[in-house]
Write a structure and sequence with these properties.
elongated; 5 strands; single chain; five-stranded antiparallel β-sheet; 2 helices; 2 domains
Length: 133
């Protein structure tokens, strides 16, 4: 039984590690990335068993007035934005990492990983404290 809890603890620690890395990456992007305004130019319909959700497509311009387009990783129903709505984004110098500056846009993965890691770590800690005290 200890192996099961040790494995769950290891999974929790690994998830916590990746949550911290995700947070640090976002922090670095905010500190060293470039911020600008983006406009919602389109929506992509995403169909699955739960119905249709909408993923916004944004367009922004860098300092050289060159246009870039990126799709949000998050889709929602109802639409989270309206067509033509302006949002603030941050991007790295290569335009490979672009994030909408919002709580969920910036910290989504860190929060999701923490939501999975936390109960595992609490459960494992409680088990070992109970067993060995």
């Amino acid at each position: 039984m200890d192996y099961l809890y040790a494995t769950l603890g290891l999974i929790g620690v690994v998830l916590l590690f990746f949550a911290i890395r995700s947070y640090q990456h976002t922090k670095e992007l905010l500190n060293f990335g470039r911020k600008t305004k983006a406009i919602v130019i389109n929506f992509i319909e995403v169909h699955d068993d739960d119905g249709t959700t909408y993923r916004p497509v944004f367009e922004y311009y860098d300092n050289n007035k060159q246009a870039f387009v990126f799709e949000s990783e998050v889709s929602s129903k109802p639409k989270a934005y309206s067509l033509g709505q302006q949002v603030e984004v941050v991007y790295d110098k290569n335009h490979e990492d672009v994030k909408v500056i919002s709580f969920w846009g910036l910290y989504r993965w860190a929060i999701i990983l923490l939501m999975i890691a936390s109960p595992l770590l609490v459960l494992v800690t409680a088990y070992f404290l109970y067993k060995y005290n």
